[in-house]
């Protein structure tokens, strides 16, 4: 705020300044909305997790232990369950302001510490999957569009249709069965082979950490373990991106100016790349945000099959135990990632298309 | 329409090539099959796969199946069992044990050659510290030592004094939660055995990353959701284990089945009996009855249901169930529960004493009960599966069986977090539940008597059967093992003719090992002893 106030008077002197100013306001407005959104999410998540007709005491204490009022009381006090709900929520928000997400009932560790352990595993998986998706999906979509109605387009249509309709869980099991069990082409589950020590913790991404440690062998192994689950996860998003890219390309290809460009005898390469791909990619940015979100939800099942120690597994265990602080923590992390991606997409939109900043 | 120029063709090749290359990269590299089986000589890795039921590695708080298995490898108890035989406790850290005639004083002289993994000698003070810590942490295992006061008359003797006669105590001591901790080290890391330990003890987190026991293994890394790894304790006072490293991984049963056949794991613990059928001869399947008993109850409280509390109606259920068909449903290795106490324990009934199905008798009882066809609700935890047996499947079969004798059962499934409180509050008309033994002694089953924990859940109030309750009290205080065994049998025979409970079956623990692994023996208390595997 202070920065924008001081820079404002100077702005009229140059057009570039105005653009910066508008862009800054755009970012700030989006950031403020984002913060409100996150607070809203904590409230909804808090209410929902507490409205579940279940009893965390019952889920966490053994049959004998729940019969002992002293043990039950000790459990409630330790986990803050003895206070009224609004007090619990305010305490939660209070903790949140200094990065305290509470104590997991399951692991007895701060939720932030748990998340610090599991989030990088998921992000590494999801980022690899999204990179694969973009590298494969976007070119395939462009290809399908410029070769519309050829055999290649037909094949891609069938493949991408099955890609979006096959359940990820099934795909994960089948690919594990075929590629690991039958053919022995990929290693089994987990981030590394059993008994292999992980690299020192720098980023939590095993591939990166192995490189930072200067251990190419470990890097290779981490990568081998990463590729199959990432590919399985990417199947859906590859298909999604291919289909959207194709549709978006076709829309642009039908524009008059494309026909004009061709009529002028402009080389096809220039037509496609200068006049079609760039505008066609804009709506794909949105799909990219959605795709990343779907990756995060798909990861729960993929992590289960590939014994991948990410937030999917953590969320699953927390839900079974009605471990409220952990569930809240996972909700928050997923929300932040989701919202963050959308924010980035918004900004990217704003950068690509200046008209959007004004809205 | 589109001109096929050279660049386009080249470019499409690149794009498809990238896709192919990526998929090949995932498949192409060689997998190192031998990494799990380990090399010969000094460094052998054992890979165990399990669907984790794990919250902590702190022996003062551990009470889950996976946690117990892991704690057992690191912390040794005073007494244990020989393999899977639960009939007689055998010395581990104690040299022997002696229970006083009134059953209140258990004296245990300790071995004097036991050392912790840091080299410190284990003394009776460590035992007193460990036991008081378990009690005062007020966690799941605290009840094991209810009314028990540990003391140490000298460095090598422990005396456990109980408020009431406690003949089951030697059996209880084998519990992984009662493994002995190095008191010096635990205190150094914030541990305490003081009365307010539930709020002041800070060692839990440290014990989830390190261990302080005298067992054959020490903790190397610990995660409640992915993997736990253990390393052989180099200074172990006993025989060194065969495997110098143990990795326990959290893996779903479907994947476990593939992994053990592929040699990715040498031992997997969660296949359902049906999944273990038809496995190749390269692996070995072990099916053993567990101490997890499925039972049905018919609420004895008329305020909950006039119908289910009617004794004739209860008899109709008792004789109308087709027990053999239920055992078959539970799969290979499971057994019929002749009484509520599992067949593995002292005081178990002989299988010939089990209730026999008698449809005519069931129908006659039903007629006598005045039942006029109203719906009766059967509640059960829909999301719970034990040893591959799902409550939903069992409930459906019970519903079908009871329909044949004319009882209209309505199934009311709900997630355990919801159904458990209802069960615990004694509000279910019919309930299908499970009792897993807390410790391998029949005294754990006194909870089923009128006025006791489980009895009350089935609406069986104190005073409902004074004769049975008196028998229960006598069994609880009788020290002589033969005599108390007979008393427990008498109690179960009585419960097989009356009362709200119908014990159904004990599930089977299926374990699959690769042929390279030997020495596996299932023990219901700690599941597997890693150190005895070869």
How would you spell out the order of helices and strands of chain A?
HHHHHHHHHHHHHHH
Secondary-structure class of chain A: mainly alpha
**SS-based class of chain B:** alpha+beta
Q: In terms of per-residue confidence, which ranges of chain A show pLDDT below 50 for 5 or more consecutive residues?
A: 1-15
Question: How far is the N terminus from the C terminus of chain B?
Answer: 71 Å
Largest interface, C-beta within 8 A: A-B, 76 and 77 residues
The assembly state of the depicted protein chains is: heterodimer
Number of strands of chain B: 19
| Proportion in helices of chain B | 25-40%
Uncertain stretches of 5 or more adjacent residues of chain B: 1-41
| Gyration radius over CA of chain B | 27 Å
Largest sheet of chain B: 11 strands, mixed
- Total strand count of chain A, please? 0
How can the largest sheet of chain A be summarized? none
The count of helical stretches of chain B stands at: 16
Kindly report the average pLDDT value of chain B. 89
Quickly list its features.
heterodimer; A: 359 residues; mainly alpha; disordered N terminus; B: 534 residues; alpha+beta; 11-stranded mixed sheet; globular
Structure description:
The complex is a heterodimer of chains A (about 350) and B (about 525). With about 350 residues, chain A is mainly α. Chain A contains 15 helices and no strands. Chain A is globular and about 85 Å long. The N terminus of chain A is likely disordered. Helix content of chain B is about 30%, strand content about 20%. In chain B, strands 1, 8, 9, 10, 11, 12, 13, 14, 17, 18 and 19 form an eleven-stranded mixed sheet that branches. In chain B, helix 9 runs antiparallel to helix 11. Chain B is globular and about 70 Å long. The N terminus of chain B is likely disordered.
């Amino acid at each position: 705020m202070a920065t924008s106030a001081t820079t404002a008077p100077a702005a009229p002197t140059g057009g570039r300044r105005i653009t910066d100013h508008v862009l800054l306001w755009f970012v700030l407005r989006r950031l403020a909305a984002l913060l409100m959104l996150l607070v809203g999410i904590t409230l909804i998540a808090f209410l929902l997790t507490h409205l579940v007709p279940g009893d965390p005491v019952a889920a966490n204490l053994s049959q004998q232990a729940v019969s002992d009022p002293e043990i039950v009381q000790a459990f409630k006090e330790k986990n803050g369950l003895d206070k009224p709900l609004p007090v619990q929520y305010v305490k939660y928000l209070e903790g949140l302001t200094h990065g305290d997400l509470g104590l997991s009932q399951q692991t007895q560790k701060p939720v932030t510490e748990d998340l610090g352990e599991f989030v990088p595993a998921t992000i590494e998986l999801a980022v690899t999957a999204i990179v694969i998706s973009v590298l494969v999906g976007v070119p395939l979509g462009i290809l399908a569009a410029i070769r519309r109605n050829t055999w290649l387009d037909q094949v891609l249509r069938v493949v991408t249709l099955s890609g979006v309709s096959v359940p990820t869980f099934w795909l994960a099991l089948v690919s594990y069965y075929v590629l690991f069990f039958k053919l022995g082409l990929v290693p089994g589950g987990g981030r590394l082979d059993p008994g292999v020590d992980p690299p020192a913790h720098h980023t939590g991404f095993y591939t990166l950490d192995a490189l930072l440690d200067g251990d190419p062998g470990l890097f290779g192994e981490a990568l081998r373990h990463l590729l199959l689950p990432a590919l399985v996860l990417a199947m859906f998003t590859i298909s999604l991106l291919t289909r959207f890219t194709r549709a978006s390309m076709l829309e642009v290809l039908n524009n008059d100016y494309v026909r004009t460009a061709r009529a002028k005898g402009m080389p096809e390469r220039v037509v496609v790349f200068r006049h079609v791909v760039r505008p066609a990619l804009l709506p794909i940015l949105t799909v990219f945000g959605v795709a990343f979100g779907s990756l995060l939800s798909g990861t729960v099942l993929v992590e289960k099959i590939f014994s991948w120690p990410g937030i999917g597994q953590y969320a699953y265990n927390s839900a079974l135990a009605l471990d409220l602080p952990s569930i809240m923590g996972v909700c928050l992390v997923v929300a932040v990632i989701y919202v963050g991606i959308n924010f980035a997409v918004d900004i990217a939109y704003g950068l690509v298309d200046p008209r959007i900043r004004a809205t | 329409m589109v001109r096929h120029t050279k660049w386009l063709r080249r470019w499409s090749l690149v794009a498809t090539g990238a896709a192919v290359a990526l998929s090949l990269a995932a498949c192409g590299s060689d997998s190192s099959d031998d990494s799990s089986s380990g090399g010969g000589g000094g460094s052998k890795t054992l890979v165990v796969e399990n669907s984790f039921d794990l919250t902590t590695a702190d022996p003062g708080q551990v009470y889950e199946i996976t946690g117990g298995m892991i704690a057992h490898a690191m912390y040794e108890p005073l007494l244990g069992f020989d393999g899977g035989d639960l009939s007689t406790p055998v010395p581990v850290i104690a040299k022997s044990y002696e229970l006083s005639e009134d059953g209140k004083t258990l004296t245990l002289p300790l071995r004097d050659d036991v050392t912790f993994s840091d080299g410190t000698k284990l003394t009776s003070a460590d035992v007193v510290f460990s036991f008081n810590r378990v009690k005062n942490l007020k966690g799941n295992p605290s009840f094991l030592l209810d009314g028990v006061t540990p003391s140490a008359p000298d460095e090598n003797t422990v005396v456990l004094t109980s408020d009431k006669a406690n003949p089951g105590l030697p059996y209880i001591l084998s519990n992984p939660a009662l493994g002995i901790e190095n008191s010096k080290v635990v205190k150094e890391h914030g541990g305490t055995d003081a009365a307010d330990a539930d709020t002041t003890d800070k060692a839990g987190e440290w014990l989830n990353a390190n261990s302080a026991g005298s067992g054959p293994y020490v903790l190397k890394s610990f995660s409640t959701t992915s993997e736990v790894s253990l390393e052989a304790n180099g200074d172990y006072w006993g025989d060194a284990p065969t495997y110098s490293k143990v990795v326990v991984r959290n893996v779903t049963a479907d994947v476990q089945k593939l992994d053990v056949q592929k040699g990715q794991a040498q031992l997997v613990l969660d296949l359902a009996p049906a999944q273990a059928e038809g496995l190749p001869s390269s692996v070995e399947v072990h099916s053993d009855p567990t101490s997890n008993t499925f039972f049905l109850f018919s609420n004895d409280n008329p305020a909950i249901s006039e119908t289910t509390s009617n004794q004739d109606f209860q008899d109709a259920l008792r004789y109308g169930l087709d027990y053999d068909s239920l055992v078959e449903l539970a799969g290979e290795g499971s057994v019929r529960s002749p009484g509520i106490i599992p067949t593995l324990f002292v005081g178990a009934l002989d299988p010939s004493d089990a209730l026999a199905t008698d449809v005519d008798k069931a129908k006659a009882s039903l007629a006598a009960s005045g039942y006029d066809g109203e719906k009766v609700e059967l509640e059960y935890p829909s999301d719970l599966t034990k040893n591959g047996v799902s409550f939903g499947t069992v409930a459906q079969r019970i519903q079908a069986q009871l329909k044949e004798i004319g009882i209209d059962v309505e199934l009311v499934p709900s997630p355990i977090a919801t159904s458990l409180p209802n069960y615990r509050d004694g509000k279910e008309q019919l309930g299908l539940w499970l009792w897993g033994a807390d410790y391998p002694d029949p005294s754990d089953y006194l909870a089923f008597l009128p006025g006791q924990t489980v009895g009350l859940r089935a609406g069986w109030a104190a005073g409902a059967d004074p004769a049975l309750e008196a028998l229960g009290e006598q069994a609880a205080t009788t020290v002589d093992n033969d005599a108390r065994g007979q008393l427990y049998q008498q109690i179960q025979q009585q419960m097989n003719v009356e009362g709200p409970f119908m014990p159904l079956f004990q599930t089977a623990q299926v374990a699959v090992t690769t042929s390279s692994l030997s020495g596996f023996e299932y023990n219901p208390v700690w599941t597997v002893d890693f150190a005895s595997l070869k």
